[in-house]
Amino acid sequence: MLIDTASIDCYQGDVRALSLVVRRVAWTARTVWFVIAMLVASVLVSATPGVPGVADARVAVAAAPAVCAIFCDTRDPSLARQEIFPVSEKRVNGRRIVLHVSNADGMAWGSIDDGTVGDAVWLDRSWDGGPTWDGLLGKASIPGTWTGTRTLMYNLSDPSHHRRGILRACGDARGIACTDWVYPAVCATVCDGADPASGPGDTRPVPETTLNGRHIAVHMDDAGMAWAVIDGARAGDEVWLDRSWDAGASWPGGSSLGRTSVPAGAVATRTRKFNTSDPGQKLYGGAVRACGRAVEGQNGSCTAWARTAPGDADTAANAAAATDALMWSYDPNTAWWPSSWWNSAVALTTVIDWMTQTGRRDYLWIVDRTFEVNRVPFPAGMRSTDPIDGHFVSRAIDDAAWWALAWVRAYDLTGKAAYLSEAVTIANYVAGFWDGSTCGGGVWWDRQRTYKNAVTNGLYIRLTAALHNRIAGDWDWLAKATTAWRWFTASGMINSSDLVNDGLTNTCRNNDQPVWTYNQGLAVGAAVELWRATGDSGLLTTARRLADAGTTSPVLVRNGVLTEQCDLPDLTCDDNAKQFKGIFMRYLADLNDATGGAYLAFARTQADMIWSANRDSLNRLGQQWSGEGSPNVRDWRTQASGLSALLAAAAGP
Questions:
Q1: pLDDT (tens digit, 9 = 90+) per residue, 577-587?
Q2: How far apart are CA 647 and CA 80, in angstroms?
Q3: Phi, psi at residue 21, to the nearest 5°?
Q4: Among the three residues 246, 278, 302, which one is the final residue of a domain in this structure?
């Protein structure tokens, strides 16, 4: 028996019994479990109404840190949305120990039946594939005259912290027995352990590594499954894969996958194939590396970590890989990309764009998850430096409008009326800040009415026109959009070079502040959506004039590559500006579609540069699309921005 005493918490309860919570335990005999069980304090239990012979546990001892994904640990099993039995039950002295799983919730619970008073059931959860585990989770004992009991529900994995878990149910009825673990293998399109000869595609996402004349490489197929190969080898050499869910920082439970030796008389071998994502556990962006060991010297070598990497010319597949990397940063528990409020709205819109364009629904669950979790009020500091008042609105009017556009896109994807209704609610809030008494019109940027700028008014026009195009019989939103467009084009924010400056001065003049790509893109997008609403060809002409300026001006384009002012060497963009170029590309793609492909060449230039010069082996896309300059920051904001360029190139005319 091995017990990590550093991870045992002790305390004295009201019943003056010593309670030991053994969090990481490895055992070799059932008698060990009996000793541990005798040290565990009594638990408080209460019967579940309407379920004869079963009681729920209310554990009165300290537990392993709670995991929160869609739900948090210790959820009531009566709330489970599904109940399946993926592993066989165990019997010990006539008692039935059963592991219940709800894949819909990503949770499991254990039960014991046909028992007597004092029999107990609990869950073990392992983060390293089974060698060690958090034990005695939800331990419940059969009380009174009951013949069974069950634990509460616990999460199978911890996607918010990039940890993949496995669970089993254990019981003590004068002897210890446990079910098998679920789920030790990752199953996506196919399960871990597939033959490398099956399935199309064979690319090498990172360079091979060498070891004493051996060549060790990681290979991937079109479905994102990976395998390792060693050649130039000797009999007894070994090769394997490591798999990490936290971008290569650690790989518990993912070490030595498919480990195999070169057989006698051979000079090469390969592992089986293993998945690089686990959508069932909401774990995306898994990374792998190939490792090998030479028979002489017992030394080894590994390649760099890599995520799925299609060929450079396959823009649609590249977009899928970039979306997978973007989803790595989404937090299923808090249901956003921490920690930028309006940027999360744009990132969500980008994922919806990908699903709309491809017809796939891999990440459909995040749309409703984000909607349900975030439409409530939040105090300052939770989602933004400002309080969120509910319905995605706050002091920042433009932030609210970004969310409204996200819900318009969600409605387009799903047809769910609640999303369109939410967009209308937000639009009514934004419309309340239209003010004709200052500068003759325009929507204020903030609740304090301090600034009229391009982003807020570009958003407002796009939003109001979009609502008209989706609400039968509407004229009110169209009138607002038309009035706002006329005001915007006459406001002076569009300068003599057809570039959009940031806003107006207090005297209602162009303030000559920087030309940002997202302001240019929003002006294009506003004109295109209003053109759809009215059929006025002059709007499409204006959109093309603005797009032509945005794709040719040295203010925004350098060496053919879209470049923000903060992208220049030795500079870096703040969290807002990191996402600007992607917004430009989203609305340029919209115009490209409306004009039969007029801007496809420009979009492909951006996508090719991003994929070849601005991507690392984990498919993370940087701020500077040219790949030049230092530092070239990479985070989920720059990821969403680059992804929009890939989508624009993949859309075609």
A1: 999 999 999 99
A2: 37
A3: -105, 105
A4: 302
